[in-house]
Write a structure and sequence with these properties.
Elements lengths: L12 H4 L1 H12 L3 E2 H8 L3 H13 L3 E8 L2 E8 L1 H17 L3
Antiparallel strand pairs: 1-3, 2-3
Length: 100
């Protein structure tokens, strides 16, 4: 790869953060997941996960559904169509940057 072809700025910054990358990777492998499940899989704190989920939601990459099961709140997360396309584009760009 030529030096001109290498452009790390082409990576989607919304996805590229460590926790957001983990969230996107996990959600890409399941149809949907509860907040508690994503928290456990990514080993994030409630507050940290909430902040990063909001950023992904604002970008239109993740759909967040808040409901109640009985009297208990339940938050369910899933990738949107836009999120899945962004994830695939991110992986493609990463492969291109690494020569893979």
């Amino acid at each position: 790869m030529s030096e001109d072809a290498f452009n790390a700025a082409a990576l989607d910054e919304v996805i590229h953060g460590k926790l957001r990358l983990a969230i996107m990777a996990y959600l890409s492998a399941v149809s949907e997941a509860s907040f508690t499940e994503v928290k456990a899989r990514t080993e994030a704190s409630d507050g940290n996960l909430s902040v990063h989920m909001r950023k992904l939601e604002e970008a239109g990459y993740v759909d967040v559904d808040k409901s109640f099961v009985g009297r208990r709140p339940r938050t369910t997360l899933k990738l949107t169509g836009k999120g899945r396309k962004a994830w695939i584009a991110y992986l493609d760009e990463l492969r291109r940057l690494t020569g893979g």
